[in-house]
Amino acid sequence: MNHYVGIDVSLAASSLCVVDGNCKIAREGKIVSEPDALIACLRGRKVELTRIGLEAGPLSRWLYAAMRQAGLAVEPLETSANGPDPLHSPSNDSRLQRANNKRRGA
Predict the structure, then answer these.
(1) What's the chain's average pLDDT?
(2) Predicted local distance difference test score (pLDDT) of residue 101
(3) What's the number of domains the chain is made of?
(4) What pLDDT sits at residue 55?
(5) CA distances from residue 3 to 16, 75, 81, 98 in whole angstroms, order as listed
(6) With left for phi above 0 and alpha for psi between -120 and 50, is residue 58 left, alpha or beta?
(7) Does 74 score more than 80 pLDDT?
(8) Are 96 and 103 in contact, with CB atoms under 8 Å apart?
(9) Three-class SS string for 33-61?
(10) Domain containing residue 29: CATH number
(11) In Å, what is the CA distance from 62 to each residue of 4, 67, 70?
(12) How many helices (H) and strands (E) would you count in the chain?
């Protein structure tokens, strides 16, 4: 079964949410915002990762480059520029990103 990942990037730790093709959460948590840690975590999953959505922004550029170089199917996802969102939180953002992955046709 295909799995999809959403990652909300923060300075010290990033929120990660992995869901299966039925949108059932397979893993959710935080991981240090370092390329090697994220790559190891994603490769450590014993499932096929169809698409990985990474929050676009200055903090994610080096993560994106390293993940692409490692051969992961990562895509930058733009965040809202409409100001503060009352629903904004790292875990909500990672959930929204994985939902976007599903809608984008994986």
Answers:
(1) 80
(2) 58
(3) 1
(4) 86
(5) 13, 15, 28, 9
(6) alpha
(7) yes
(8) no
(9) CCHHHHHHHHHHCCCEEEEEEEECCCCCH
(10) 3.30.420.40
(11) 21, 9, 12
(12) 3, 5
